Amino acid sequence: MTIPFRQAARVGAYVVKQHITGRKRYPLVLMLEPLFRCNLACAGCGKIDYPDEILNQRLSYEQCMEAIDECGAPAVSIAGGEPLLHREMPQIVKGFVERNKLVILCTNALLLAKKIDDYTPNPNFTWSIHLDGDQAMHDKSVCRAGTYDVAVAAIKLAKAKGFRTQINCTLFNDAEPARVAAFFDEMMAMGLDGITVSPGYAYERAPDQQHFLDRERTRRLFRDILSRGNGGKKWKFTQSELFLDFLAGNQTYECSPWSMPLRCVFGWQKPCYLLGEGYAKTFKELMEDTEWEKYGVGNYEKCANCMVHCGFEGTAVADSVKRPWKMLPVAMRGVKTEGPLAPDIPLHNQRPAEFGFSRHVQQKLTEIRTSKAAAQKG
Q: Between 337 and which of 43, 75, 227, 342 could a Cys-Cys bridge form, CB atoms 3.0 to 4.6 Å apart?
């Protein structure tokens, strides 16, 4: 991993404490979506398909601070939508840093040059630039020509100003391993601090449903990519060694959806960052009232092909703490890219998908309109 030792030690100590105290479910990273509005419309995105009344909603600074205080996670990843569209974002980042949280601010970088001077370099603050591959790959992914060049310029600007800077890269079934490896080489040559990589999740309302990976293809793809980089050791990843080992099909993991809980304008999303099957008003309610056993690979049809970091990184981190001897060979020699794959979770007992997106949207619209009507009467 390329996480600085001091930060890794803090997270490691937090995880060890949870295990010592016998806490079965605990948050590792708060996933925060303070708005859904975006200045891109990516084909694989399932986060922006909302009416304007909802896209205009924002979590306030106070709500964002309440979220991190409620859950107590040591880190927060701010996504969206496009977070830099939020007027209070500099204040929100500062508030998290003052609470000594590790802060990752995800952005497509279209506004970064304009906004960057609103932020101050800090060891606990990282820019995470969205880049889904080389110029042709990324511009196709985000459905707008020229975005790759803007993102690369933003990376160089952020590094020049002293910010810790990484990229987040989502791969789909048209990814070519040789091109992905060459792209990773290019990013490292730029002096990037790290890469977060994940297979795309099949959001049910994403415009493009043809290019999501199933689990078998994900495992083969990551083996092929990592084999071109000395088992991944050639590149700096911001993820645990065992998560990368899982992506390459060497670990059989169940997901830990509670490890990266999402707070968005609807509330605390059940059961995870990827699936909106209901919303809780408080973090306590999320943890205590969610029927966790109903979700996950092998349990629910919508989860069948998921290998995304927000579900499985927490499992890998916990495994690293419980069984450090499993992590050491991967850290020393890299991810194994040959030989038999680990057994995968069978799907024959999974329950069929349920679809409640429209109901949740209508409930939120009713809440917004009722609040507006009450304000006008007052």
A: 227
Q: Is 123 exposed, middle or buried (0-12, 13-18, 19+ CB in 10 A)?
A: exposed
Which residues of the chain are modeled with pLDDT < 70?
1-2, 44, 46-47, 202-211, 378
- CA distances 175 to 27, 41, 117, Å, are 31, 20, 35
State which amino acid sits at residue 267. G
Structure tokens at 349: 């007992």
pLDDT at res. 205:
61
pLDDT at 2: 62
Report yes or no: 123 and 6 within 8 Å, Cβ to Cβ: yes
| Prior bond of 249 cis (ω within 30°) | no
Q: What is the pLDDT of residue 60?
A: 98
CA 92 remoteness from chain centre: 19
Asked whether 305 and 202 are in contact (CB, 8 A), the reply is yes
How far is residue 176's CA from residue 182's CA, in Å, rounded to a whole number?
10
Token digits of residue 252: 């059989």
Per the CB < 8 A criterion, the answer to whether 6 and 47 are in contact is no
